[in-house]
Amino acid sequence: MATEALEPLRGLIHRVRGAVSRTRNGGETNGLEIVRNPENAEIDIVAVHGLGGEGFRSWITWEPRTRPKSWLEELLAKDIPNARIMTYGYISDGVNYRYLVRNVLYGRALDMVKALAAQRTRDGSSQRPLFFIAHSLGGWIVKRALIISSEAIDTHLKNVELSTCGVAFFGTLSPGRPSSPSPLASVIHRTTSGLEGDARSSRSLRRSRSRSFTMQPQPQPSDIEWLENQMEAFKAITANLPRLSFHETKQSSDGFIVDKRHSMQGSDGIQIGLTATHSDLVKFQGRDSNYETFISSFREMIDTRRSSLVMEAKRKTFDMTAVHHLEYLSAGFAVPYKLPNDPSIIIQREELLSSLRRILKPAAEPHKMHFAIANLWGLPGTGKTTLARSYAERHKDEFSFVFWIRADSWETVIASYLEFADALVDYYSQNAPRDQIENDLGLTGVEDMLKVKSILQIDTVRATSVVRAVKDWLLRPENEKWLLIFDNVEPSYDIFDFIPLTLSGQIILTSRDSNCCSWGTRLAVTNMNDNEGVELIGSVLGEYVLEEPEQAEAALQIVQRLQYHPQSIAMAASTIRQTNSTIVDFEMKMESRVPLHLLGSTIDQSPVSRTILRISAMLSFSIIPVALFYATSQIKIAPERFMGIFNDMKAFQDLSHVGDVLQHLLDENFIQATSPSESPDSSQSQSSSAPSPTFGYFMLDATARDHVRDSLSPPERVENAWLACNVCVDSIRQKEVDSSTLPEIHDFGRVMAPHAKACYDDLSSMLNRTSEDDDAVAWQVLGNVCMAQGALDQAIGCFELSLRQKNSMGIVERIQTSLSLASLLQQTNQTERSLQVLSDINIASIDSALGFRVALAKASAAAAQGEYARAGNQYETLEQRQEESLGPTDITTVGTVQKLAATLERLGKMEEAQAMYRRVFISYQNLFGQSHPMTLEALEDLARISEESNAIDEAESLYSQSVEIKTHSLGPHHPSTAQAIQKLAVIADLRCRYDDARAKYQRALDIMAPTLGRAHPAYTATMENMALSARLHANSLGEDVHLSFTSQHTTDYEDTDDEDDVSPTTDTRSKAAIRIAAYDLAESLYRDVLASKIAARDLYSNDHILATGSKLREMYETEEFYAKNRGDKVRELLQILREGRREDGGKR
Description:
By secondary structure, this protein is α/β, with parallel strands linked by helices. The chain contains 44 helices and 17 strands. It is globular.
């Protein structure tokens, strides 16, 4: 500890001694020096020497019988006459490794970039092309300077990296990794003076020992690793940075200092050898071969800059993200939309519509806080989706747009967000280039994302960033009137991640689960009543048909026979219309059904009818696409034991009898049909030449289904089960081929999901008892549908079945299936099984991209199981492989680095994690721009970990950067801007700047209130943070101030400031007043939060309320300020909590 305390003093003495020594040895000065400055300068060149160098005199040339001169002036200035040439000098030796690592190699970079930015700003050359020449570890100073510039928001600093068009490294060490450490310590020791063991400094060391200064004889591994980790971010810059690398080919007295294998690589992967020792790499004998080799490559790099437009490309990326005023948003928010599944008939269920209206547009209640969220729940087919659609149609004039989200699964929600994001870009592209719109709104590449056939082909981080970007757009304060409908929410994922909780819009969720979302008000959607059911039949057939009392009575009988179930009633009405029947005739058929087996030759003896009925009977009770029976033509071969049924199927397909048979079955009332306009997916994937019925979907009558199943012998059941599964598989595959976008595939998958589930639940056991590889079902296809529609148990089962079959899949499809299975097992907290599936994957003979996915899945599974050390090693190995194959700035590589950073953070390796987060931030900034959601998330990750590492200055700077970017890109009144301001307030608390913190908290609250509302979790969390800040402020004033005032008579907290010029008595009273006011504010804020949570019971449970109550109670019970009335305060608080529970009625 004593040594550490003396270290700054030792470093100061050493720097002073070194400065004096260098001044005596020739007047060398530190900092930026201009060597040559021609009037016609078009480029800037900056030379940076290494450790132990002599500043300007590092760059010397000599010839026989001449004095040494600077080759920067004598040679380079003549060869590149349009260049301004500068040097950056610094005290380059040190008393110990830590000083050299932390203060020189790392710390001098900031000084250099500031000096360079200031010089170029002063003379108006801030956008002039810039080149660096760096020797040895001076190259590390250059790299660190470019890192600082790249992540800076200050335009002057930023321009340094944006203008840099190339670097020439001479003997510069390439950073190592923990798995393959570089000889950094050795290079430092052999290139600098002042360290123990260096004969050049033995005298100074003896003097130091006499003064009891303890040297650091060996480098600390933590310092070396720290510096190498900090240089990780340089990899984020390399994509647009031309580089030359020159290495030594002659050994120094004690061998190579930086040999070829440890030196930097050029941007083309080439390392150029010079016939010189390490120190002589930048010393020439006139225009010798070494100089000619250098100047020829350097000139080429300068010339290439013009043709390749390196600087222009970098500036374009930055300018695209530099603040746009987003003039195109003046087009408003009336984005064109089309509601899906456009039904020809909607029955206005007035009672439910009125209830829904009261939920979404309630009367004002002063003591209640309300968000316009309605949860429509009920059994399948009760009309939840139709009710949501009816509400949207009735009130369409109130909305700027309606956003319909298929909410069956995480995959379908993501696809819906992508689809809507693409619509946003199309809408605003009328007034600005598409790439600018994508970039400004954070929707880069959304059009291409929609073209994939599976959501698994989309990077998860990019997909979720699109969701954040769309939510940011929805939360813009001026975007006030919208309706979001989350249709068919399933419990397989967290719906909260997708809901923009705000006062601005209205949200409807439909689900079979009444608890699908704890936010909002529930509304049960039950079956119809007599009048609604009869009206539905009349609407389908025409109201005139109900004018006859006999038909109206028959309609009522049908409604009652179908138990008022809306979907069943609609299907019956559609069937009546399709068969040109009357309501009376249809009701009579329902009452006196002719048994199926009595139809003899009409049905049973027809192979076409028999096959269709048997396949349909094997499927679920849900609607069946007619396209299913055309897709069976995709089955090319069948196992020997299935040849009979296979030939029957081929025969009726060849004769194109499907349409006739389905119409016949409809006429005989054995199936019920939907009209094309009522079909979930009106685009049928069937042959255009084949005659088709006028309906697209049908349902098999329940009695007919039971009869067909019961009439089958066990072998026939197996045959038809196999055929039913394969018909589904081929229909799904055909739809994937025919569809151009992911939502189209999901639409068809939504129809097929019940049948895919039935194949697994009902048929898999009988098939697998007799299964052989040559007659196996492609269970992975059915599993993919189940997974995309949220049926996770069936998806897991299907994937497991497919992997048991040895020869049913190719190696790539088998690995993709294993990855899907492992992901679902991990999602359902079956991490050990997930790891086992991944360990069984054989990645031999597969492409690297798939191999990377496997390695990433293994590391993620290890992290999910809490094995962070193993996960960290796997992420690091993967990142190295990706870096070699794809490059350090490829988005796939950067994604792995991001996961590695999070894992290192979990391991408590904060400095390493911080360096990785910095690399991710700079990479995303260069790839997508400053305002992209992925960049902002990485920036705030970097700020957060800096805060947690007690790097408060850096954290404050980064959070300030976040506030500035969001202010420009989202607006000063956007809730996301307020969140960033709130984080700055926390930093002010850490600095004990309580007045500043209070002002920032209040500013954040003022922004949130109009858009999010005072009951929003972000608002109440900010209030609680502000309450804690006030309490900390009160504590900071100490216990010894006079507190005889009553809180009711104190000066307002906001108007009370400390006075410098006051008497001791006045000062004490002032502090007392401030302290009382601070406690009063903390108490008031906690009570306001309690009131808000109690008033917004559709958002907060009792646990949420008790959490706030506990904080307030803890303050009452532990702060001496409340000693006199502590009991009364606690009793009053408990009474508030009891009343809040009574208001809730015990529901939560």
